[in-house]
Amino acid sequence: MRTLLRGGRVIDPATGFDGTADVLVSDGEVIAVGPGLPSADDQVEIDVAGYIVGPGFIDLHSHVHTIAGQRLQAMDGVTTALDLEAGLMPVERAYAEAAAAGRPLHYGFSASWGSARAKVLAGIEPDANINTGLSVLGNPAWQRSSSKTELAAWLSLVEGELAAGALGVGVLLGYAPASDPAEFLALAKLAKQAEAPTYTHVRELVEVDPGTPADGSEEIAIVAAETGAAMHHCHVNSTSGRHIDRVLGALESGRSAGSRVTVEAYPYGAGSTAVGAAFISPERLKMKGLNPSRVILLETGERIADEGRLLQVRAETPGAPCILEFLDEEDPVDRALLHQALAFPDSIVASDAMPVYWQNGANESTEWPLPPGGATHPRTAGTFSKSLRLMVREAGVWTWLEAFRRCSYLPARVLDEVAPGARSKGRLNVGADADIVILDPATITDAATYFDPTRPAVGVRHLFVAGTAVVRDGQLLTDAFPGQPLRGEPR
């Protein structure tokens, strides 16, 4: 069955088209775009006049590996949700388990640098499970530098994961901030040889830790220049904090000199990770000018009272997910820093979406609406709609064409070399994948808050994944599981 989207404002960031047109979809592909396309008995026709029709959002940084989490992202306009910063290992198992469970959205994974190091340096067997991964983050055994033999061993594991279809290499460098910079350089050389990107949570900035082996923002640009590797800087807003001016300046200088560095950001002043992460130690918080009360345990809502309690939680449950408030979104100065990261030329919107947890220990639900009491970061449900509200509707910094370039087109281009399947995404012309979002430009907004984080976004009227409706008339379709794997092409 074909679908005709009639009379919407069609935006194609690949060609720069922004105008009223019809879009005809068949067999998961856009087969015609233009005004006055003919009606036919063998097609469903949907009136989308007054709405914006564009390529679905591609999230390069999503840690939701569940139906529940993907449904929240669908209501936020996402059609492809990829875990590239951390990745999962073994990647074959990650793909197989997602396929077996079914997914509303397209999915994919990078090779996990952290898991490969943990296996070699600490003997921790990876199981392609994010909750296991969170528990490992606070384990110091894998955070040290490697011997030559160990380095060769885990590089070999990463190479095997790339051969198995991983979408590049996820590098949680900020979780092993004292590791030898030579290892990062060796990894980048491997990635360049495989024509695969890296996606890095950079180590600390020199302003935060003068003893860091390398400045986080400068290291990624220098290594990209030395190796020619394509290197993606994850959530530049959260790793830079109040030093965003200097960081963006360093990245722009590196890019002007030829470094292949791409940048992403999200519109929130708080991050989320495991409480045992290296940068949530009391000492590291002090370096950032933060105190333990800026840490909130996700599943219980407990705000950490003092250093003693933080040390206790880190020792007893290092994998417990938490929220770290690094900027105050109510402060106009801090809010301007977040806007600056989003406004940076070619900055990509990416959510860093987190799993949803319930107090009974569950992290999956096939109910919709989701059961009450679910805990996650509000960015899981609202990153893209909040970015559109802030940058298009309120600030007018982005046009709608620019918004789709940053949310759809640019993230797809990060993947072009490693994944041929990405080349038909992020665009809305003939031959493009029928991954399409139709949104109301007057009402699109986030609804999730830190106190009610699973409230779906508002304003996505329709969402098609591979030509199949996942959202229709603003309502999620609970029987829709059209998501397909996006995999790397072995070199």
Descriptive account of the structure:
Helix 5 packs parallel to helix 6 and helix 7 (216-227) runs parallel beside helix 9 (244-256). The protein has two domains: 2-54 and 429-476, Urease, subunit C, domain 1, CATH 2.30.40; 56-423, TIM Barrel (Alpha-Beta Barrel), CATH 3.20.20. The chain is of the alpha/beta class and 491 residues long. Helix content is 32%, strand content 20%. It has helices at 67-74, 91-101, 113-122, 130-137, 148-163, 181-194, 216-227, 236-240, 244-256, 282-287, 307-316, 332-343, 379-394, 400-414; strands at 2-12, 17-26, 29-34, 43-47, 52-55, 57-59, 78-83, 106-109, 111-112, 169-171, 198-200, 231-233, 261-265, 270-274, 295-297, 321-325, 348-349, 436-439, 460-465, 468-472, 475-476.
